[in-house]
Amino acid sequence: MKIAVAGTGYVGLSVALLLSQHNEVHALDIVPEKVAMLNAGKSPIVDTEITRFLDGNQSGDRPLDFHVTLDPAQAYTGADYAIIATPTNYDPQKNYFDTSSVEAAIAAVREHDPDAWIVIKSTIPVGYTAKLREELGDRRILFSPEFLREGHALYDNLHPSRIVAGAPQDDEEAVEAAHRFVELLSQGAEPSEHERMNPDGTEGIPELVVGTTEAEAIKLFANTYLALRVAYFNELDTYAESRGLSTREIIKGVCLDPRIRDDYNNPSFGYGGYCLPKDTKQLLANYDKVPQNLIEAIVDSNTTRKDFIATEILELVARAKASGVADPVVGVYRLTMKAGSDNFRQSAIQGVMKRIKGKGVTVLVYEPTLDQPDFFGSEVTHDLAAFKQRADVIVSNRWSDDLADVKDKVYTRDLFKRD
Ligand SMILES: NC(=O)c1ccc[n+]([C@@H]2O[C@H](COP(=O)([O-])OP(=O)(O)OC[C@H]3O[C@@H](n4cnc5c(N)ncnc54)[C@H](O)[C@@H]3O)[C@@H](O)[C@H]2O)c1
């Protein structure tokens, strides 16, 4: 089967490699450097499994049938499925996702292939696919939410917690196409630990074919729940810190309840990354005229948390000043969202930086992956020893053993050294 994939980012690249174990896959990107890198067998993103696959060390004996191109005719002509994995950034002006790249990719597919089943894997507003099908008069557009984590992009596709596809339930052919798409993803998966853990007692990868609007809602509600959980333990930490209590002990006692579970509960500077900040805002926008309290609170809570963290750091700066340092330097250790992540889209530390810089604090950034002398006016260094020496206070969203020798300078809320 020929499958085209538009976009070779975290989602597109991992899905393309997964499917190229059993299908002829043509991935297309509009950035020539990315295409050149992939054609040279190099991954543009840090991901152990993607690198393993690109090195030809996938499981099984079959070579990958994987091609990368800038040419829409090569990618899309004759494809049975065309998967759309392009960005959907949140547009603060419109208070909605900017879906223009999805629309551009769909137009390009249709120019070369009127019949392919288009499967949108980008995260989109609730109701988007149904609206687009109607606007374009095109019934061959489906949606399948993507649940991968950055840093584990291909791993999460090889070991999916579930596979969900959306198709209009009154269109038998579309429902069948959605089932076939689920089978394709499932065929590429490796035996998963989740097989033994299905909450409903079933075995195997849980599969769900639902309406496209329900599938879109599943994605946004899942990410908003994850954001809620981060925000909840962060607010617990804010309370404990403000009252001089041990966050660690409280979280431990709370999470011994098996319904609450002892995971995904490590305090941080706020939820960040490409998806949670924008997906929560999009879900809130979708609530238009529908009563709610929680969704808005989840969005607001992240701002309150960053305000609180910034206030705590400013207190440390004030203390340094009181002890005789004229212009204390706050060192930001890494701009990344979390340990193991290789990008810093919407990382919480940036929000904290903005706040303390707004109060006139000098910030020095240690970020070895950033090849530029400054970041929004703050000096960037790759010299860890000089960074540790020059910074009076070091802030780090996630602890690193790199900082062990200066731990008295470090401010972090990473209590459990995970997530
Ligand atoms: N990153 C994640 O963890 C994650 C998880 C689940 C869902 N998603 C969603 O998936 C979508 C993609 O996210 P990502 O992280 O893979 O993005 P990304 O920025 O890593 O990759 C997107 C790629 O699409 C390319 N592109 C842009 N316009 C194009 C076009 N018209 N045709 C072909 N390629 C084009 C870009 O050059 C880029 O390489 C977003 O909607 C995101 O919300 C992301």
TrEMBL record:
<comment type="pathway">
    <text>Nucleotide-sugar biosynthesis; UDP-alpha-D-glucuronate biosynthesis; UDP-alpha-D-glucuronate from UDP-alpha-D-glucose: step 1/1.</text>
</comment>
<comment type="similarity">
    <text>Belongs to the UDP-glucose/GDP-mannose dehydrogenase family.</text>
</comment>
<feature type="binding site">
    <location>
        <begin position="147"/>
        <end position="150"/>
    </location>
    <ligand>
        <name>substrate</name>
    </ligand>
</feature>
<dbReference type="GO" id="GO:0006065">
    <property type="term" value="P:UDP-glucuronate biosynthetic process"/>
</dbReference>
<dbReference type="GO" id="GO:0003979">
    <property type="term" value="F:UDP-glucose 6-dehydrogenase activity"/>
</dbReference>
<dbReference type="Pfam" id="PF00984">
    <property type="entry name" value="UDPG_MGDP_dh"/>
</dbReference>
<feature type="binding site">
    <location>
        <position position="88"/>
    </location>
    <ligand>
        <name>NAD(+)</name>
    </ligand>
</feature>
<feature type="domain" description="UDP-glucose/GDP-mannose dehydrogenase C-terminal">
    <location>
        <begin position="331"/>
        <end position="418"/>
    </location>
</feature>
<feature type="binding site">
    <location>
        <position position="123"/>
    </location>
    <ligand>
        <name>NAD(+)</name>
    </ligand>
</feature>
<keyword id="KW-0520">NAD</keyword>
<dbReference type="InterPro" id="IPR008927">
    <property type="entry name" value="6-PGluconate_DH-like_C_sf"/>
</dbReference>
<dbReference type="GO" id="GO:0051287">
    <property type="term" value="F:NAD binding"/>
</dbReference>
<dbReference type="InterPro" id="IPR001732">
    <property type="entry name" value="UDP-Glc/GDP-Man_DH_N"/>
</dbReference>
<feature type="binding site">
    <location>
        <position position="272"/>
    </location>
    <ligand>
        <name>substrate</name>
    </ligand>
</feature>
<feature type="binding site">
    <location>
        <position position="150"/>
    </location>
    <ligand>
        <name>NAD(+)</name>
    </ligand>
</feature>
<feature type="binding site">
    <location>
        <position position="34"/>
    </location>
    <ligand>
        <name>NAD(+)</name>
    </ligand>
</feature>
<dbReference type="InterPro" id="IPR013328">
    <property type="entry name" value="6PGD_dom2"/>
</dbReference>
<feature type="binding site">
    <location>
        <position position="345"/>
    </location>
    <ligand>
        <name>NAD(+)</name>
    </ligand>
</feature>
<feature type="binding site">
    <location>
        <position position="278"/>
    </location>
    <ligand>
        <name>NAD(+)</name>
    </ligand>
</feature>
<protein>
    <recommendedName>
        <fullName>UDP-glucose 6-dehydrogenase</fullName>
        <ecNumber>1.1.1.22</ecNumber>
    </recommendedName>
</protein>
<feature type="binding site">
    <location>
        <begin position="264"/>
        <end position="268"/>
    </location>
    <ligand>
        <name>substrate</name>
    </ligand>
</feature>
<dbReference type="InterPro" id="IPR036291">
    <property type="entry name" value="NAD(P)-bd_dom_sf"/>
</dbReference>
<feature type="binding site">
    <location>
        <position position="29"/>
    </location>
    <ligand>
        <name>NAD(+)</name>
    </ligand>
</feature>
<dbReference type="InterPro" id="IPR017476">
    <property type="entry name" value="UDP-Glc/GDP-Man"/>
</dbReference>
<feature type="binding site">
    <location>
        <position position="337"/>
    </location>
    <ligand>
        <name>substrate</name>
    </ligand>
</feature>
<feature type="binding site">
    <location>
        <position position="338"/>
    </location>
    <ligand>
        <name>substrate</name>
    </ligand>
</feature>
<dbReference type="InterPro" id="IPR014027">
    <property type="entry name" value="UDP-Glc/GDP-Man_DH_C"/>
</dbReference>
<keyword id="KW-0560">Oxidoreductase</keyword>
<dbReference type="Pfam" id="PF03720">
    <property type="entry name" value="UDPG_MGDP_dh_C"/>
</dbReference>
<feature type="binding site">
    <location>
        <position position="419"/>
    </location>
    <ligand>
        <name>substrate</name>
    </ligand>
</feature>
<feature type="binding site">
    <location>
        <position position="219"/>
    </location>
    <ligand>
        <name>substrate</name>
    </ligand>
</feature>
<feature type="active site" description="Nucleophile">
    <location>
        <position position="275"/>
    </location>
</feature>
<dbReference type="InterPro" id="IPR014026">
    <property type="entry name" value="UDP-Glc/GDP-Man_DH_dimer"/>
</dbReference>
<dbReference type="InterPro" id="IPR036220">
    <property type="entry name" value="UDP-Glc/GDP-Man_DH_C_sf"/>
</dbReference>
<dbReference type="Pfam" id="PF03721">
    <property type="entry name" value="UDPG_MGDP_dh_N"/>
</dbReference>
<dbReference type="GO" id="GO:0000271">
    <property type="term" value="P:polysaccharide biosynthetic process"/>
</dbReference>
<dbReference type="InterPro" id="IPR028357">
    <property type="entry name" value="UDPglc_DH_bac"/>
</dbReference>
